[in-house]
Amino acid sequence: MSYGGHMTTTRAIKGAERRAEILRAALVVIAERGYRGASLGAVAERVGLTQQGLLHYFPTKEAMLVAVLEERDQWDAMPDSQWRLDLLASLVDYNAMRPGIVQTFSALLGESVTEEHPAREFFTGRYEAVRANMAAVLRCEYGERLPSGLTPERAAPLLVAVMDGLQYQWLLAPEKVDMPGAFRDFLTLLGEKGS
């Protein structure tokens, strides 16, 4: 009885490891070719599977795409209660060290605004959560009003827009746009911390 359980556990672990390997390969292929240019066949080839073998893990390209996005969010995950403005600056520093992942995320984000794109629902939900998290970060830092008089809820979309907009500018001209430095400049613009 225990032997069968052990085999099932081992198989599940190997399956999870294989799934993670496929997601890493998918991220690389999407970074190289964009979502539209990335095929299941190219991902399968990269991990030594047939396309049919890959379909065992991800029945559609869309399912794989959403799993890649969710996995990327897991890598960056931090409990909501631990986010602070200075840690956001550290996240920007961290992103500056991994252009491939930022490029993939940005390309998929750009494509997701089109009607019926498979990642549209993911990004819509993600941005709703991110805006709420940023409002909480700003409330922790400043209270109910920023020095400008804006509420955290009014300032949160601006904070998110700056982070994402800097990523696009940096990806297009990394030698001209100091993404971490510009983000710290933006934090300065927000104003001095409330008492």
Automatic annotation (TrEMBL):
DNA-binding region(s) from the entry: 39-58
Keyword terms of this UniProt record: DNA-binding, Repressor, Transcription, Transcription regulation
Keyword check for DNA-binding: yes
Record domain HTH tetR-type: where: 16-76
Source superkingdom: Bacteria
Pfam families the record matches: TetR_C_6 (PF13977), TetR_N (PF00440)
PANTHER family: HTH-TYPE TRANSCRIPTIONAL REGULATOR BETI (PTHR30055:SF234), HTH-TYPE TRANSCRIPTIONAL REGULATOR RUTR (PTHR30055)
Name of the featured protein: TetR/AcrR family transcriptional regulator
